[in-house]
Design goal:
With about 110 residues, the chain is of the alpha+beta class. Helices cover about 20% and strands about 35% of the residues. Strands 1, 2, 3, 4, 5 and 6 form a six-stranded mixed beta sheet that branches. β5 and β6 form a beta hairpin. The longest helix has 14 residues.
């Protein structure tokens, strides 16, 4: 039998269960033509991130507010349940979403086609 290449390893998802919900590692790109979740990508260090395009510019918190709105709508939670814990002034962000962790993870996997 000929050696067959091993299937590519599935990337680690950029989210994990956390107390009271999930933590998502997000890479936000502001000034997009429309706000949307683009899928899973990799950051410069090779770590998985949820790639998100934001229509708002990165000024006066507009892009962060748009990110919160987008994630809340996509995950079916209230805006106040989405909190940016790290990265408020950068593109790489750590976001906590409050709610049932297993249900939120299922929604994230469905958004990503998995």
């Amino acid at each position: 039998m000929a050696d067959q290449p091993a299937p590519a390893a599935k990337p680690t998802p950029p989210w994990r269960a956390a107390p009271g919900g999930v933590v998502i590692i997000v890479r936000a790109t502001p000034r997009a033509s429309r706000s949307q979740i683009s899928g899973i990508g990799l950051d410069a260090d090779g770590r998985s991130v949820l790639a998100v395009r934001i229509a708002a510019p990165p000024s006066e918190g507009a892009a962060n507010a748009d990110l919160v709105d987008l994630l809340a709508a996509a995950l079916g939670v209230r805006k106040r349940d989405v909190v940016i814990h790290r990265g408020e002034t950068g593109r790489n962000k750590q976001v906590h979403v409050a709610g049932d962790a297993m249900a939120l993870i299922a929604r994230l996997e469905a958004l990503n086609g998995g």
